Amino acid sequence: MTLTAGTRVGVVQFSHDGTFEAIRLDDASINSMSSFKTAVKKLQWIAGGTFTPSALKFTYDNLIRDSKRARAKVSVVVVTDGRFDPRDDDSQLRYLCDDSTVVVNAIGVGDMFDKKHDSETLVSIACNNKNRITEMKQYTDLVADNFIEKMETVLCPDPVIKCPDLPCKTELDVAPCVGRPVDLVFLLDGSERLGMENFGHARHFVQMVANALTMAKTRNDLNGARLALIEFGKENENQVAFLLTHELNGIASGLSGLSYLDSSSAVGPAIFKTINEILGKGTTRKTRRGAEVSFVFITDGITDTTNLDEAANAMRREQIVSTVISTGSDVDEEVLIKLAMGDQNAIFKGQTFSDVLQPSLFNRFIRWVC
Q: Model-level pTM?
């Protein structure tokens, strides 16, 4: 069955003649952010030459033409850092332009795009629409907050669902996590390094997340989000503010009643406790069928690392998606990376905890966990 709502994402990596690696739009195994991230991480750098025109033809013929959904808008973002091989057929640069349902955006990375020849290449890729061309000097600019926000506007300029075939809901359908179940568990480091002021900020942050997400309607609703929070200190010193729940009143009550441990920190035992008691095992499993389970660590990484590697492996076995929020300059980067399971992009940093509450970082976090 092909879903008629929601967003699907495909990826094509291209290199020399006939060399492509793709994540297909209709890949049935990719049904969550976690599975998509896993597929992207499996992509291997091909190296070699550049056959951009052939890649555009491959993309349409193999990812778009036969797998696009009726009435779906197809947005293509082409990222290229140089000229294409002259042996390739340059007439195929406009291969995507013949389908009126496909909108093409071209991003040129590097200094060569101030030259006429390469600028003309971008114009052709973007179907002569110069408003859909972006030029930048380096690849790190691709992950800049202002560029990501710009691309969101470009790809989704009018985020309103018209509901052509489905009854409209009373709340906005564009709210985060509306299309799939997400069980989000916060692990808050209650060590003395956090401080009472930041403890208050952390509680406020979790409440903001609950308010920003589209929560599940019932305990077993297969859409929307549920949240849980455990505060951890030294080994076997943990406080559960609330178990996995969709009820905002329960979340607010649990946060207001949570006391600051103000002790040392041991994250490994907290991970095992969370997996065993909050998620549950076997017949006592408390997560929903098909739900993406996400751990969010709020910590500076200064913690007892006993059994940390084993705990990280346990998260991998449970297919848990991990995110880290850390503030200040005095942090343990090695621990943060282990908690993020090696994904640097899953670590969100601010100079102070109040920075995490600001829209630019907070909204980026919401997009990431959803």
A: 0.59
